[in-house]
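# nightly structure sweep
# worker-07 picked up a monomer target from the shared queue
# config: single-sequence mode, recycle default, output format = C-alpha cells
# input follows
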Amino acid sequence: MEISIVKNCVRRVENSTANIKVANRINANGKKERINIYDSISAPGLTIYAEGGNVFGKLGKEIGTVSKGRICVSASVDGKIKRCYRSRLVMEAVLGRKLRADEEVDHINNITTDDRIENLRIVDRKSNMNNPLTKALRKNKSPKRHSLRI
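# output follows
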C-alpha cells in the first residue's frame, strides 16, 4: 500500500521502516512526486510532512488552528487532550526524539506559520531572541502610548 496525498489529505499508509514513510504526492501539474512523511513522537497517530510543514490527523486530514500567530495542534494522548505548536511536532518528527525543555524552535524567516523543515532550527532562548529578523522587528515596534482624558 502507498500513501497518496491529494488536496492535503493522506489516503493510505504503507508499512514503515523506523520513523519515515514514503508517499506519493500529486503536485499542481498533476505529476506524482515521492515525499517522506514521519510519525509524530509526542502525539501517536499523527502524520507529519516535514518538507511542507503539515500535520495530518488520524483520519488523514490536515489539522491545526491559528493561535497567537502560530499554528497549534490538539491531539488525544493517553485519554488527555494535548496541545502543542506545529513547529515543535515537525522538528521532533525529523529528529526522532522529544525536544528538551531548554530547546526552542526558531523560525529562520520569522514567519511563525511557515513550518517547513528548512525554515526551522533548534536554539536556546537567548539565541532565539538574537535572530537578526527578531531583533529588527522588536526595534521597529513603537511603544504603546496612552492618552489621558480630562
